[in-house]
Write a structure and sequence with these properties.
The complex is a heterodimer. By secondary structure, chain A is α/β, with parallel strands linked by helices. Chain A has 7 helices and 10 strands. The relative contact order of chain A is 0.20.
């Protein structure tokens, strides 16, 4: 099967101009392919570039060198070089990203937060709401919370809203950055089931999970990033 | 309107080599950027960085010293800086909107809220009073102003309400792009949240383009697809909003991003 994501020789460094120009090389000449219907778990210590890789795939971080080709509408698009309009479209239809923490928008209800990706795809409001409610039910968000803003929710509740929002739209590529960190065992199980359902339906899932048993239950493949070249050097 | 001439292959707005000098002082210098249809572009930077000057040049309330502002209007792809007065007035009345920082500069304070919305419709030739009033009501509702306030003067409104009224008065003629100069800056935090919420809904429902000038990076992230960072009259960095805020490259952008509480 053809890869849906082909990462070719990427490098990424960060230069901190206000900290004596410290340069942090996180990835160097890194290449890897990812496939549909496959869940890949990234492992390695903090700083080994797991989150950086996810953010580069989503184009939230810029790609220094190399290419990140994603299959979108049957053509290959380089996320590091694509026009903004193409990136917006890819984020609407092809790549979904779930961060560790929900970025709560005041005054927007939990349900509206969850269905936003569907509305962005022009799905009718009532159909989107029905799907959103199903998702909130599966993730055990009490109904009396659906119509209020997630601002005051607990960490675990916010994380479930974040996951519901990320999983509702069935993206062909799903990037998950520690989305299970503050979940109780029951919800953790539900999230793993949801992820495995998405992969069974054809999604390419790439994620970071710190819990060993989560990793084992989710992974079709494990990618250890700890051996990758990483240096820190002060520039002159 | 019939006979649409706007070109789908061109950006909605293109600013080219635009500069504004006040005597020897630089307002903004050699600015280039584009806005696509349906795109929200934020311009961030400290006060005095030239962001408001740039916006005023685009809005036509300041005349740039050099450069062009091309707008993909229903009358063709035209340079607003060179367009004649009559055409410009037509475009400003129907296809662009400008929401000023201080609502008192953008509203007519001596006519009612409904009148402020209706005025733009009348300027476009609508004469049926009942119809104008219905549309005004509809717009008050969209910006969450109580309909019972339709005949009240804006002077009796709070700052947040005035700002929402100004937005309604600008959007009533269904413009393609709206320019906003620090729309949230004079408002309390809770009032800001409401304004932002209203703006997000309108922008996504109307597929509206927007240029948003703000010094508030949290507001910029919430509303903008892309950001331009300005310093001393020049653009120093640009990119997708998350790229600028999470992966800033330029020393000035890094300073700006690290100086605030997490947006």
């Amino acid at each position: 099967m053809d890869a849906i994501l082909n990462i070719v020789n990427i490098s990424k460094d960060f230069v901190f101009h206000h900290q004596q120009g410290t340069r942090l090389q996180v990835l160097e000449n890194f290449s890897v392919k990812f496939y549909p219907s496959q869940a890949t778990v990234l492992t390695g210590p903090s700083g080994s570039g797991k989150s950086t890789l996810l953010r580069m795939i989503y184009a939230g971080y810029r790609t220094g060198k190399g290419s990140i080709f994603v299959r979108h509408n049957d053509r290959l698009v380089d996320m590091g070089k694509a026009d903004p309009g193409v990136i917006y479209e890819i984020r609407r239809h092809t790549i979904g990203y779930v961060s560790q923490f929900l970025r709560v928008v005041p005054r927007v209800s939990a349900l509206d937060t969850v269905i936003e990706p569907l509305i962005a795809r022009n799905m009718g409001e009532s159909k989107a709401r029905a799907k959103g409610k199903q998702m909130l039910e599966r993730l055990r968000i009490p109904e009396n919370l659906w119509h209020i803003s997630a601002t005051t929710f607990s960490g675990g509740e916010q994380q479930r809203i974040n996951l519901a929002r990320g999983l509702i739209a069935h993206y062909p590529v799903m990037l998950l950055d520690e989305p299970t960190a503050s979940l109780d065992p029951e919800n953790r199980k539900t999230v793993i089931t949801l992820i495995r359902e998405a992969v069974a339906a054809g999604a390419c899932m790439i994620g970071v999970f710190h819990n060993r048993s989560d990793q084992e239950q989710i992974a079709d493949r494990t990618l250890d990033m700890s051996g990758l070249k990483r240096r820190q050097e002060a520039s002159a | 309107m019939t006979g649409m001439l706007n070109r789908v292959d061109l950006p909605l707005l293109k600013v080219q080599n635009l500069s504004k000098f006040y005597g020897g002082t630089i307002g903004c210098h050699d600015i280039n950027f584009e806005v696509a249809e349906g795109e929200v572009v934020g311009i961030v930077g400290e006060s005095g960085s030239g962001k408001s000057t740039l916006l005023k040049c685009i809005a036509g309330t300041e005349t740039p010293t050099n450069g062009a502002v091309y707008f993909n209007s229903l009358f063709g792809f035209i340079d607003l800086c060179q367009a004649d007065e009559i055409l410009l007035r037509k475009i400003n009345r129907t296809q662009t909107g400008f929401v000023t920082q201080n609502p008192m500069d953008g509203l007519r304070m001596n006519i009612s809220a409904g009148g402020n919305i209706g005025e733009r419709l009348m300027a476009n030739g609508m004469r049926n009073y009942g119809q104008i009033r219905d549309i005004a009501r509809e717009w008050l509702d969209k910006v969450e102003i109580d309909l019972s306030r339709i005949d009240d003067l804006p002077t009796t409104f709070s700052g947040g309400m005035q700002q929402r009224l100004q937005i309604a008065a600008n959007l009533v003629t269904d413009p393609k792009i709206i320019l906003m100069d620090e729309p949230t800056s004079g408002l309390d935090v809770s009032v800001q949240a409401r304004l932002i919420d209203v703006l997000r809904k309108l922008v996504s429902r109307l597929k509206l383009s927007m240029i948003l000038v703000t010094h508030d990076l949290a507001v910029a992230r919430l509303l903008s697809h892309r950001l331009y960072v300005m310093k001393k009259g020049k653009i120093v960095e640009s990119g997708l909003s998350d790229q600028i805020l999470d992966d800033p490259r330029e020393p000035y952008t890094q300073l700006l991003v690290s100086s605030i509480l997490k947006p």
